[in-house]
Amino acid sequence: MDALLEIRARKGCAGSVGQRRPVLAARRTVVLVVIALPAAQPGCSAVVEGDGSGKGGVAADAGGGGDAGPSADGQAPPADGVWQIAAGYNHTCALRGDGTVRCWGSNTLGQLGDGTFAGGPVSVAVKGLHQAVAITAGLDHSCAMLADGTARCWGNNSYGQLGDGTKAHAPLPVEVTGLQNAVGIAAAEFLSCAVLGDGTARCWGINQHAELGNGTKTDSSLPAPVAGVAGAVAVSAFAQHACALLADGTARCWGDNGSGQLGTWPTSEYVPVPVQGLVGAVGIAAGSWHSCAALKQGGARCWGAGTKGQLGDGTGTSSHEIVAVAALAQSVAGLAAGAEHTCAALADGTARCWGGNSAGQLGDGSHKTSNVPVAVKGLAGVVTISAGLMHTCAVLADGTARCWGGNLTGQLGDGSHTPSSVPVEPQGL
């Protein structure tokens, strides 16, 4: 879901970009919106969101990110501003430079993390969360990675997606049991995943479509190792599949494959499979039934469901083979995949979206589906981008945020329930 090109680097690792703000200097940080993936180093890794998102979230859920670093033009959000945003299915969360998190929109199962089940179009603080460096949002749960490499999740826990060993819903953050040294996190429908500093991955929650990637179809309320993933630098998840970006520029995906979203053409895969023909990838983003990757040399590739134009190749057809996104030759600084749409933050600070647009989630001022990228109106200085079910959000270099698309539950955060086909500013961040 959330999917921004991010390089996560521990303090002192080469390959990070720009100067970190003093408030973040003591924390493990995520530098967002880098154009190229540096050579892998022990103890350093790159992450894509998204997620999220992400929901995940070109990184993906940090899934959707963590401490946002400089934008493509070298700017960085103010330390007291928004550093990352995660668009869930019908809610949204924002990470501030001080390590706190605020959420808004649907809260039927506690996914806003304020200890209540009352949602709304104005942001509320996630209680008890002060050292977050990355966030991600799923269907009706949310997660945050902390500076010490642990994670907290809150909201719906029907399938164990909060990772605390129970299936009890939690309107306040709970610790993901046994998860340490996390460097990236992603949330999907009823699933959560993390990349660890050693290049392996863990997933927890539902496993009906082998979303955990551990060779079984048994749910797990505790983090389970993803089989055969080594050298992972990022993870992204949405709906019933997940993908990991590897340090060598290739990717592995697992879970449901009904539309070819794994980049191969068997049915669901119990364990990760290589995305055929993908090389030179620097970011990964999983949507509902499609997946996309940003390339080091510029541009992007997508695969899976394409009937709403979400592959961006100008055809409006599905493909289990990777296809090039049309008219997107410049460097992609952030990539996000939603239910039936995809968005990219470009190196010049603008954004492009393509695919389904029934709620205005492409941000071009229309509700017209597009099978090629269209410009998001009025956006400049984009640092990160995240796509939800039918809405999209971005962080700007001045530390503010913008959201557009569906707003039935207040997920745009502008104090209303009115959908918008152009960006609006969430309030109270």
> CATH architecture, please?
7 Propeller
The number of helical elements comes to: 0
Number of domains: 1
Mean model confidence by pLDDT = 85
Which term fits the overall shape? globular
Please give the oligomerization state of what you see. single chain
Strands of the largest sheet, in order across it?
4-5-6-7
Helical content band = under 10%
Number of strands: 31
Name the CATH class: Mainly Beta
Classify the secondary structure makeup into a structural class. Answer: mainly beta
Low-confidence stretches: 2-74
Roughly how many Å is the radius of gyration? 18 Å
The CATH superfamily name is: Regulator of chromosome condensation 1/beta-lactamase-inhibitor protein II
Model description:
- The strands form eight sheets. The protein has a four-stranded antiparallel β-sheet, with no helix packed on it. A four-stranded antiparallel β-sheet has the order 8-9-10-11, with no helix packed on it. Strands 12-13-14-15 form a four-stranded antiparallel β-sheet, with no helix packed on it.
- The two termini are about 20 Å apart.
- The model is unreliable at about 1-75 (pLDDT under 50).
- With about 425 residues, the chain is mainly beta.
- The chain has one domain (about 5-425): Regulator of chromosome condensation 1/beta-lactamase-inhibitor protein II (Methylamine Dehydrogenase, Chain H, 7 Propeller).
- It contains no helices and 31 strands.
- It is about 0% helix and about 40% strand.
